[in-house]
# Entry
Amino acid sequence: MLDAAKRDAEGKLEYTLPPLPYAYDALEPVISKTQLELHHDKHHVAYVAGLNKTLAAIDAAARAGDTAAVKALSADLAFHYGGHVLHTLYWPSLKPGGSAPTDNLAAMIERDFGSLENLKKWLSAAAVAVAGSGWAVLAYEPVGQRLVVMQTEIHNNLVGWGMVPLLPVDVWEHAYYLDYQNRRADYVAKLMDIVDWQAVGARLAAAQK
Ligand code: MN
# Structure
């Protein structure tokens, strides 16, 4: 998936940090080089490491028959996996100058939110309103076959089964604090200008297949 996992010759799975699809300073002035570098190279990478470590711990516990370890390991797995997946989707959702939605994405935004401006308003409000660390996510909801805006606390709480994340908006302080300090709303507003809606549309098309 998205250059974020691999299997070695023995078939052992390892999650990997995907490279940024642009230079560290490409998103300036919305996101500074230092902010992006820290976020990708220190924070995202920590979730990848945590995920691999948790998988190894689960493997060891299973071999040892240590079922008492299940609760802690399950929580760690959900947290690090959520962090890895959402960051992996966050980087290629952004692009210098952004892009406009077309085709099915444009039609579904119109149907489900009235307009792109309304969707941005709703997504931004959800992002600003996250209590503490978390994400606002534009997702595809496969049962009703519609677009929804949802919130996720930390990386994995409040997740609905089957929802496919299309556009995650990171509102952990580590995503914006160097550039915006406590002004989360300013960061979210500026971020809306660099969303690559074409990439979001490609994700929607894959989810609908
Ligand atoms: Mn983050």
